[in-house]
Amino acid sequence: MWFLVDSCSASDHTLKHPGRHAPGKRRVGVCFVGEGAVNDCEDTRVSIAATALQRQIGIDLPIIQSPMAGVQGSALAIAVSNAGGLGSLPCAMLGIDAMREELEAIRAGTARPFNVNFFCHAQPAFDAVRESAWRRSLSDYYREFGIDPNEIPQGQGRRPFDAAAADALAEFAPPVLSFHFGLPSAELLARVRAWQPTVMASATTVDEARWLQDHGADVIIAQGAEAGGHRGMFLSNDVSTQIGTFALVPQIVGVVKLPVVAAGGIADARGVAAALALGAAGVQVGTAYLLCPEATTSAVHRAALQRESARNTALTNLFTGRPARGIVNRLMRERGPMSVAAPEFPLAGAALAPIRAKAEAAGNGDFSALWCGANASGCAEIPAAQLTRALLAHVPGYVDLPTEAG
């Protein structure tokens, strides 16, 4: 396995580390020095944290593909894991049988570590009065598209991690589990600990990072405000507490003893290098993968990502009932991105589902959740493996990584 152990340049590597690379051998990835080797390079800030995470999880590269429910399945996770990063499978929108099928596909497609992700929200009780008011607020759109709101079924949306999921996972014993909106109950966490996975969880504030460390997380994902999709906030509903990635990462690094992964707005090698320099042990990247052929991103969503308007994103609770970052579209402009009328997460989406379906059938995303981070500049229609390696191009300590597929 290749480990990042220093940030020396290729030209002076032989002088600093004589005998570590045989003459004529191509050095791919990062310097491999084996267990217990001494790092004698001057700049070790990046190397210590990144090496620790790579060794802990068993990955070659400090790149974690963000789990993105609704726009990916096992194919993207397999591609990233086989490229040396950590591929992720989102399970919040999968039933148990569908989750099993995806896990079987991953087991058949890679022998490398992978991550399985779940939400940890409390499922709210259905509020008929609030749902009725929400549908009334959407009445103009129902008339526009010829939809009878009385015929729209009640929806449950995304499901939280539960005992059934834990039981199904035991057969596969995934090496990494990640959670959004906190952690599962102590009982559920103890059940999955039986196969000794690395447990990662998202923190959007320093207080959340401390809480996660105290309640059993092994790795903290510092989710900055730029991140696409749902905010992982769980100790507060106040969006004013949400700060940017490069402000959040060093603050969390300074108060926890666990590895910290930077997430949000990181779309290229410059962002990766900056995160590692701030003390992050790795980065989690999502938006940049949305145009990869392995992603299942819809045609409407793909088109939106390639427009100039993808630069205009905002936090909105209209689509699910919880703040999430997406490309600003007609619904967000006309209703305002945040609404007190939206039912609790994840119940808000049912009323919008038929409107979204009609609009998408006409080729537009005016009513779709076009999840996207604040930096879509890294989106590229290239294989996920190629993108994974490109994220480390010219990053100190990672040299000669091939950027072409294969």
Summarize the structure.
This protein has 406 residues and is of the alpha/beta class.
Q: Looking at the structure, what is the overall shape?
A: globular
CATH topology of the largest domain: TIM Barrel
What CATH architecture label of the largest domain applies? Alpha-Beta Barrel
CATH level 1 name of the largest domain: Alpha Beta
Tell me the name of the CATH homologous superfamily of the largest domain.
Aldolase class I
Structural class: alpha/beta
Name the average pLDDT: 88
Structure description:
The protein has 406 residues and is α/β, with parallel strands linked by helices. It folds into two domains: 43-121 and 158-292 and 380-406, Aldolase class I (TIM Barrel, Alpha-Beta Barrel); 127-149 and 307-378, no CATH class. 33% of the residues lie in helices and 13% in strands. Strand 9, helix 11 and strand 10 (282-285) form a beta-alpha-beta unit. Helix 3 (74-82) packs parallel to helix 4. The longest helix is centred in the first third of the chain and has 14 residues, at 96-109.
Descriptive terms for the model:
single chain; 406 residues; alpha/beta; TIM Barrel; eight-stranded parallel β-sheet; three-stranded antiparallel β-sheet; 13 strands; disordered N terminus
Topology:
Layout: H1 13-16, E1 29-30, H2 45-57, E2 63-65, H3 74-82, E3 87-90, H4 96-109, E4 114-119, H5 128-137, H6 139-145, H7 163-170, E5 176-180, H8 186-192, E6 198-203, H9 206-214, E7 219-223, E8 229-230, H10 245-253, E9 260-263, H11 269-277, E10 282-285, H12 299-305, E11 313-316, E12 324-327, H13 330-335, H14 349-361, H15 384-390, E13 398-399
Parallel strand pairs: 2-10, 3-4, 4-5, 5-6, 6-7, 7-9, 9-10
Antiparallel strand pairs: 1-13, 8-12, 11-12
Helix pairs in contact: 3-4
